[in-house]
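Hi U.,

Before I forget, here's the chain from the pilot set. I'm dumping it here mostly so it's searchable later in email.
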Amino acid sequence: MKGVRGVAEETLKVGATSNPNTVAGAIAAIIRSGREAEILAIGAGAVNQAVKAIAVARGYLAPNGIDLCFIPAFSEIEIDGTPRTAVKLMIRVR
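Structure:
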């Protein structure tokens, strides 16, 4: 996938039972490598865990002078042949 600015993105799928600290570590690693991260979450519990992970990742990256922001959007995806609407959170350096 290509980001808006031509920077490669990496997509993480987050569920209601995902550990926010683990997801935050993945986000921080992606951002440190110069890429943008994208989270796909379906359902309120998954979106909650995703937002927590972004907040934790900001804490991981702040000591290095890196500030994050995210842009929410909807995305139509297919799971087992059934169309679903996911919340897509695009995470970038501010």
